[in-house]
Amino acid sequence: MDRTFDRSSLGAFLRARRAALQPEDVGLRRGQRRRAPGLRREEVAELCTMSADYFARLERGDGPQPSEQMVAAIARGLRLTPDERDHLFLLSGHRTARRELRALHVSPGLMRIMDSLTGSTAQVMGPLGETLLQTPPAVALLGDQTQYTGNARSAPYRWFTDPAARDRYHPDYHDTNSRINVALLREAVARDGPGSLAAGLVETLQHTSDEFARLWERHEVGLRWSDTKHFVHPQIGRLDLYCQLLLEPDQGQSLLIFTATPGTESHEKLALLTVLGTDEFAIRTE
């Protein structure tokens, strides 16, 4: 244990933050029977992907010390600001969130927008291409990209080390995507400096991917993703989608929203993904 676990103060803080969080803040309807201020414990527990009983014990002050990963999930579920998140870590007996856990914390502003986009195809990306949060239609389009750990959390790393990472992108654009991934990593290293996560990622890729090493020697910068992205879904085929980008510069995060021109085949296919909202149907059958 890094610090003293203050059960009483943690419980009081969780109760206060739950009371301050309104249904509209997380995309829920208020309903006529809601009398107490804020969200119900069951609603917060679902947002934090934990049992209602466990969250209730933390609020009462008689629960076990939550792990750092659990604290990060609570911070995300309660839509905490960075300062509130760090306070939560300290009350839970941990030092403030490690750098990799801070990178997992979606900014409250982007969380509020995502709460209103549950029926849209959208996801939040971290500064090194980490997928931090996806709507169900985005999972249906691209697969669950939040499950990875270590270097594999970074989309550029997967692009050069895992052939399956390219499956849902049209092969005509693979070479261009490779160049853009390398250019963006070069900019990240220049921004974050030697010894940074970006620098470590580059060093690893130089030793594991001949393609990356070759492109790195070209010293290309300034390459950007096109507004139009071309996907190949394993069940419904090609989709040409427009990608709207919203940046959160303070945390280096971005929100991607995928749309299609009404009346096109891609629009019909995207609507199908939105209705299904799951990647289960995309599993190939032998």
Automatic annotation (TrEMBL):
Residues 32-85 form the HTH cro/C1-type domain. Gene3D superfamilies: 3.30.450.180, lambda repressor-like DNA-binding domains. It comes from the Bacteria. Coiled coil: none annotated. GO terms for molecular function: DNA binding. SUPFAM superfamilies: lambda repressor-like DNA-binding domains (SSF47413). It holds the Pfam family MLTR_LBD. PANTHER family: BLL4672 PROTEIN, BLL4672 PROTEIN-RELATED. This is Helix-turn-helix domain-containing protein.
